[in-house]
Design goal:
238 residues, alpha/beta, Rossmann fold, 18% strand, globular
Length: 238
């Protein structure tokens, strides 16, 4: 592998959004470190990495490896879990699991990526938030919205620190997307959520991937600490 290859780490790479992100960055010539608890097979410039994002040491090891093998440019924290169900029956086990993966896992990624990207001379961190982190949610474990609100705040903290060193940190906040997560809702619930947006449909993974890719572009040089809503107009924060 060329030492001058541009590298990107994508956590949650085997999920619906993760696969769309991998395809997007591979198409742009990146070496992609595709990290997941169930990694995809190696293919071309896709480097599968078995990773549990709650394992702080393992996440740090991946950052060091990616920096050795490429010019690591971007780190995308896309690993996340989602539990649909009535709020009144939410349990502590679900709370702890969601917070550990969605929030602590994102912290581990940011904490591992920042010093490596600073040492390399700059780069980009992108976190995957959610409209639930802005509005809360019905029919989903309350830890989900809480974890994503935490991701949004975490993004701003790393933007404040990283911006001084050429490392920009932003997040996207998608609405409900077509894929495995939305399958946890009934068809009627999905239809209601789709109709809540002016576009009258759910989002597509590749639409989120395009925004993430934009946020990692070197020419995107002044957007820092933004929580970008990608929700079809269902929520328009000022």
């Amino acid at each position: 592998m060329s030492e001058t290859a541009m590298g990107v780490v994508i956590t949650g790479a085997a999920g619906d959004l993760g696969r769309a992100l991998c395809a997007s960055f591979l198409a742009s010539g990146f070496t992609v470190f595709a990290a997941d608890v169930n990694p995809s097979p190696a293919e071309g410039r896709l480097v599968p990495v078995k990773l549990d994002v709650t394992d702080t040491a393992a996440v740090a090891d991946l950052a060091a490896r990616a920096a050795r093998e490429t010019r690591l440019w971007a780190w995308i924290n896309a690993a996340g879990i989602f539990i649909a169900g009535p709020v009144v029956s939410a349990d502590i086990e679900g709370w702890q699991r969601i917070i550990a993966v969605n929030l602590t896992g994102t912290f581990n990624g940011c904490a591992a990526a920042l010093p490596v990207l600073i040492a390399a001379g700059g780069g980009r961190i992108v976190n995957i938030g959610s409209i639930s982190g802005q509005l809360g949610g019905i029919g989903v474990h309350p830890a989900y919205g809480a974890s994503k609100a935490g991701v949004h705040a975490l993004t701003k903290t790393y933007a404040l620190e990283g911006g001084r060193h050429g490392v920009l940190c932003n997040a996207v906040a998608p609405g409900l997307l077509e894929g495995a997560m939305s399958s946890g809702f009934s068809e009627n619930q999905r239809a209601k959520m789709a109709n809540a947006a002016p576009l009258r449909r759910l989002g597509r993974m590749e639409e989120i991937a395009r925004v993430v890719h934009f946020l990692t572009d070197p020419e995107n040089s002044y957007m820092n600490g933004a929580i970008v809503p990608v929700n079809g107009g269902a929520y328009m924060p000022s």
